[in-house]
Amino acid sequence: MNILKSIRDVIASESQTLKVVKDGVGLPFEKAVKVIFFCKGKIIVTGVGKSGNIAQKIAATLVSTGTSAIYLHPTDGMHGSLGVVHKNDVILAVGKSGESEELLGILGPIKKIGAKIISITANLESTLAENSDIILYTPIKQEACPLNLIPTNSTTAALVVGDAIAVTLMKMRKFKPEDFGLLHPGGVIGKRLLLTVGDIMRSGEDNPTVKINDSIKNMLIEITKKRCGAVSVIAQNQKLLGFITDYDIRKILEKREDIFSKKIKDIMNPKPIFVYSDMKAADVLAVMQNREKAIVVLPVLNRRKKVVGIIHMQDILAKGL
Questions:
Q1: Domains and their CATH numbers in the chain
Q2: 83-112 mean pLDDT
């Protein structure tokens, strides 16, 4: 057996199926998207067997992209869970043959409740199609399986149609990265999209600052006490005048100069790089790392240009970014 040929044949078969589905996209698809978009209730995706697995994925994709949706197993629906269905809801039913007994068993009650039914099916003559308000036809000549039994081409077609609907709805809702992050707060993607410098920075008593007329001794104490490796030099109105890091101090010591004979203004960098508290932490990490010489600590300002904190690269990395 030629394993690579077999793999390529399956991929080719499913690709051809998608081409046929794509060529058949017409007004029913547009109508289905509009019905879902203007739905005043929720989208309930249902299906059994492999189609049920696809239905679950479609529901998950809809939810994560801004469309209120749930998955309902037809068997559960037959035993009380149809209580989740209301007349303002839209049912998205997935079934290749459209004749699965469990799925057909919930269609009658759903129609009596008054919810609209959109079906994704490969059988226009099926009972599912006959009971649907909108039919999304996914023609399947045969499965990629050599026995023409295992759902392969059919499940791929249904999945892609579901993805296409979800992505189109995203565009219609003007779904932004921030919206995606809000719905995914626990993962790295969510953190990158949501976490700001203000969420991580050291502020208040943990923010090392000195006035420009403070002594060198007080400046060293502040850096040591706050354990951040730097200190912001601020004016009376909290505006940033300069920034001093461990590196600035080491440069003086390496020259064997008397640091205590210096003034704050002699040591500080009067034009330091700074970041704003409302900037994305991931963007700031990129600023720190994507330089010939990495920056490990930066002063943080608000949009009124007042110093509100300090941020260290390790503080960002500790959040998993």
A1: 3-175 (3.40.50.10490), 197-317 (3.10.580.10)
A2: 96
